[in-house]
Amino acid sequence: MLRTGIYPGTFDPITVGHMDIIKRALHVVDRLIIGVALDTGKAPVFDLAMRGKLVKEDVAALGEDAKRVEVKTFSGLLVNFAEESGANVIIRGLRAVSDFEYEFQMACMNSRLKADVETVFLTASESTHFISSRFVKQIARLGGDISSFVSPNVAGRLRDHFAKESP
């Protein structure tokens, strides 16, 4: 039986930290679905379609491994999306201890809702643990250099977006 994992997130935008988790998740699962979530609780810079497109473009850089990755957008409960996608593993990245409490509670709730879907935590690499999409957007908004945090494609899209907002 193939191990199919889902790595969910808003990916607004996708960062090198996300890509690190994606690469490492491919050591754990045979097939990986990146679930780009609508997440109405946040006000994303990019709409759902653009976030999905940016993820697909970054994943394409994985070469041969990209064939084992599928990018899908979704809304609603993650466990329902997992069931619809045939996934039996949820991949979650942990950057800091502060992430653990929330992620642990979410994993317990997901387990209660769908017991046959397991959550696997991957800790962020030493070189990426401080990167967050929120900080990347703030730095980009203020005209800072984000080139070490995101792909050149994403950096360009953010620069274009914030250039339109400038007075």
Any overview of this molecule?
With 167 residues, this protein is an alpha/beta fold. The protein has a single domain, classed as Rossmann fold (3-Layer(aba) Sandwich). The chain is 43% helix and 19% strand. It is built from 6 helices and 5 strands. It has helices at 16-25, 48-60, 78-85, 97-113, 133-141, 152-165; strands at residues 4-9, 31-37, 69-74, 89-94, 118-123. The chain has a 5-stranded parallel sheet, with helices on both faces. β1, α1 and β2 form a beta-alpha-beta unit.
List the SSEs and their pairings.
Elements: E1 4-9, H1 16-25, E2 31-37, H2 48-60, E3 69-74, H3 78-85, E4 89-94, H4 97-113, E5 118-123, H5 133-141, H6 152-165
Parallel strand pairs: 1-2, 1-4, 2-3, 4-5
The helix/strand series, from N terminus to C terminus, equals: EHEHEHEHEHH
CATH topology name: Rossmann fold
Strand order of the largest sheet: 3-2-1-4-5
Q: Count up the domains.
A: 1
The oligomeric status of these chains comes to: single chain
CATH superfamily: HUPs
How would you characterize the largest beta sheet? Answer: 5 strands, parallel
Helix percent band: 40-55%
- The stretches of 5 or more residues where confidence is low (pLDDT under 50) are none
Task: Give the helix tally.
Answer: 6
- First and last CA, distance: 55 Å
Give the integer mean of the pLDDT values.
93
- Count of distinct strands: 5
Would you identify the CATH architecture?
A: 3-Layer(aba) Sandwich
Q: Return Rg in Å.
A: 16 Å
Would you state the CATH class? Alpha Beta
Give the helix/strand class: alpha/beta
Beta content comes to: 15-25%
- The backbone outline, from C-alpha atoms, is globular
